[in-house]
Amino acid sequence: MRLEPPSGTPGDAPAPRPETTWADAGAPDVAALVRDAREGDPQAFRQLVDAHYARCLRFARNMGLAAEDAEEAVQDSFVRVWNALPRFRPGAPFEPWLFRILANRCRSALVRRKWWRRAAVDDADDVLAQLPARWGAEGDDALYDAVRHALDGLPAEQREAFLLRHVEGLEYAEMMDVTGAGLSALKMRVKRASDALRARLQEAIA
C-alpha cells in the first residue's frame, strides 16, 4: 500500500510515504511543521512524515506486525493524522498524539490476527539501557538478538510499554496519553517486561 502526497487542506487527502528521514537532515521544528500542516501545507506534512516514519515503522514491527502489515499500519496512521489535523489542538504535543493513533492501529491489526494477549516499569539497566542507541544497528550481537526474541514472547501491553519507554524514549506522562493506561499500570508493565528481558539476557550470557 503506497500513498500519494497530500494536497489541498487537511481532511481532503492522504499522507505521503517518505523516502528519507530527518536523521539525515537534522531535527525539524515539529511545532512549526504541525502549524503549517494544519493550515493546509502539504510539504510541511510531508516533512512531518519524513521526520517520524522510521520510528513509527520500527515501533509497529516491534509490536509484532509483519513487515507489510507494519507498513500499512504506519501509512494508515499518517492518513488518520492528516485527516484529523483540523481537530488537533494548537500547541499540544504531537508525538504522543501520533503514537496513540499508531498504537491503536497496531492493536487493531493484532486483534484481527488473534495475536493480542493479556498484559500486565523500573528502568532496565546494563544492556537494556543501551537499546535506543543499538536498536536496528548492523551487526547486532547475540545479546540483542536475545532481546528481540524475548520481546516477541511478551504480552502485547508489556511489549508496547517497554518499547515506548526504552526504545522510543517517551516520558510516562506521554505514555499515559498514548496508551490511556494509568501511571502505576505503565510502570508495572515496563518493570515486568524489563525483568523478563533481563532474565533472557542472563540466559544468553551464561
TrEMBL record:
Family under the similarity heading: Belongs to the sigma-70 factor family. ECF subfamily.
Biological process terms from the Gene Ontology for this record are: DNA-templated transcription initiation
Can you give the residue ranges of the RNA polymerase sigma-70 region domain?
48-115
**Mind listing the UniProt keywords for this protein, alphabetically?**
DNA-binding, Sigma factor, Transcription, Transcription regulation
Q: What is this protein called?
A: RNA polymerase sigma subunit ECF family protein
Which PANTHER family does the entry link to? Answer: RNA POLYMERASE ECF-TYPE SIGMA FACTO, RNA POLYMERASE SIGMA FACTOR HI_1459-RELATED
Supply the source organism's classification.
Bacteria, Pseudomonadati, Gemmatimonadota, Gemmatimonadia, Gemmatimonadales
Q: Which superkingdom? A: Bacteria
* Domain (RNA polymerase sigma factor 70 region 4 type) ranges: 145-194
Which InterPro entries does the entry link to?
Answer: RNA_pol_sigma-70-like (IPR039425), RNA_pol_sigma-70_dom (IPR014284), RNA_pol_sigma70_r2 (IPR007627), RNA_pol_sigma70_r4_t2 (IPR013249), RNA_pol_sigma_r2 (IPR013325), RNA_pol_sigma_r3/r4-like (IPR013324), WH-like_DNA-bd_sf (IPR036388)
Q: Where is this region: Disordered?
A: 1-25
From which source organism is this entry?
Answer: Roseisolibacter agri
**In the UniProt record, does the keyword DNA-binding occur?**
yes
Q: Does the keyword DNA-binding apply?
A: yes
GO molecular function per UniProt: DNA binding; sigma factor activity
Give one Pfam family.
Sigma70_r4_2
